[in-house]
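Fold Annotation — chain and its backbone
Encoding — discrete vocabulary of local shapes
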Amino acid sequence: MIILPQVDKDFLQTAVSSNLTIHLVTEFIIFGFPSLQNYHILLFCVFLFIYLFTVTGNGSIFFLVILDPRLHTPMYFFVSNLSFLDLSYTSVTIPKMLAKFSMHLDTISYAACFTQMYVFLSLAATECLLLTVMAYDRYVAICSPLHYQTIMTRRRYLLLSAMAWSGGFLIPVTVLILALNLPFCGPNIIHHYYCDHPPLLQLACTNTSFNVAVGSSIGAFVLLITFTLVVVSYIKIILTILKIDSKDGRKKTFSTCASHFAVVIIFFLPLIFMYVRPKASYSSDVDSLVAMLYTVLTPLMNPVIYSFRNRDIKEAFRKKVHL
């Protein structure tokens, strides 16, 4: 059952006094990549390859961690969570893009659009929290190795994971409720490649300054706090690495942490640009390009950075495929 948005009283009175007819939007059109409308086949091939690689890579890591008892440690438990999260993350947006590029299925119902927005925002918030937990896990492992087993117990890492997932799905609820109460009476073209909060606000036929303020405040609170915690954790990790006597050990540990931190930067900075700002949207091309960094590039890179460069993961993979 689709719940139509409520039209605010001021807008309704204005429409009636002006003898206008209100047409509530029941579906939206995903326009996406305004400057690349003539390259549907190329975009389909590129995004199909990215999606297959992302799903295969993250899915392989997720099942390897489950099936191999040697990987049943806090670090790999968090890595498997991240893999499942990235798999879900891309599956929320890319299949719809592929349907648009291949079969020109560019419409999405009102209910499906808001569902996509909520699930996407929830997964993004969950990833912010999970990356923070993973940074904390690495901080304890490197800075307090002798106390790691007593600090990162099974109960604690399961609790941290549960908090990340539940917190991620609770954070966007306020934004969703406020958006559902906005009137959408046309136009219904979303200048983005999925239903997201900023481009949806642009289509509301009423003042959305309160929605923008609330969304930016929640985004700033979540993103800036989690990003700060991650940065502080890695600064302490780097300071500890510099004290390692072995040059090879210092180089190897620093290389791993640097690659992890690079992925964190690529994920967080575009999100901060998109959701911590005083207006709903900039140009469609800029927003789409920035969104590509955290919706496509980060899930694509995570399997390589966090897992396929890892000796334990590679060994587990070889044994499973009998190489």
User: Anything to note?
Assistant: The two ends are 52 Å apart (CA to CA). Residues 1-9, 11-23 have pLDDT under 50 and may be disordered. Strands lie at 27-30, 107-109, 189-190.
